[in-house]
Amino acid sequence: MSLLSVKDLNVSFRIGRQELPALIDISFSLERGERIAFVGESGAGKSILGFSMVNLITRPGFIKSGSIKLDKKEIIGLRPRHMQEVRGKRIAMIFQDPMMTLNPVLTIGQQLVEAIKSHTNITYREAKNIAIEKLASVQIASPEKRFDQYPHELSGGMRQRVIIAAILLLTPDIIIADEPTTALDVTIQAEILQLLLEICKKNGVALILISHDLGIVSKVAERTLVMYAGRIVEEGPTLELINDPQHPYTQGLLNALPQMSLPGQRLNQIKGSMPSLSDRPSGCAFHNRCPYATDKCKTQQPEFINSGISTVSCFLIEDMFEEERASLGEY
Fold this sequence. Notes:
The protein is of the alpha/beta class.
């Protein structure tokens, strides 16, 4: 039984009289302890998906249809009080900027103790000891000192560690990490990712990593889903997807990695840009940026097909399989 099951999820934004789709027919599952990633450029819908899973979509956005089940229990439409029991306790989220989560006018200790006491009946001293223990567990030096400091007194990497410590207080089943290392330098990025990986493995926590960087994803996720313009366009085991990308968009993301260019050369890039919600192309949304697009791509949405151990939504792959079957006399 899947821990989390998302089926045909559609999220839209109502702007004036227009209803603009942001997520279209998103379906995936997550097993206990599994680590998956969603990748794509800014505007692909990755963060909206993360917010949807913890019911943090606010007006003018709304979940139009679909299902999100946690342990077979539907969580879309839960009353705020019941959703509060899911958010943080069962599904926790790490945001790009830890200052979105930390209260700047409260000390680190006050915030951690408050989180503990809101879910337990233990004393302040006991809560403080647990908080300091969790700070130490995420490799924060001098946790007793950090306990009494304010968020602005800590570095970005240290603040992100505090967020991870806060999440561990409630031992969630799932952590959603939305670009958790974007604002950090490369060395600190590696430390935070390694810390997340160790915590998930040690505690059997499932991880959903949201990122635009396939290089980062390759170090953490077992399975990767590629998103473009609100849709999933490719899904497969991470290493296989990176070594043999099927969708032209996935190929473009990989070619854009800095290590794919020689020193002194211009970085590769995908021509054009992600379409806005109000300017979504017909057919396959990637067709106006795709070097292989045909007339069919401009008018029809490709279905998912199996390609090796991955699944992909692309007419190019579909046509290749049809040609192969025709050459083998299967028609």
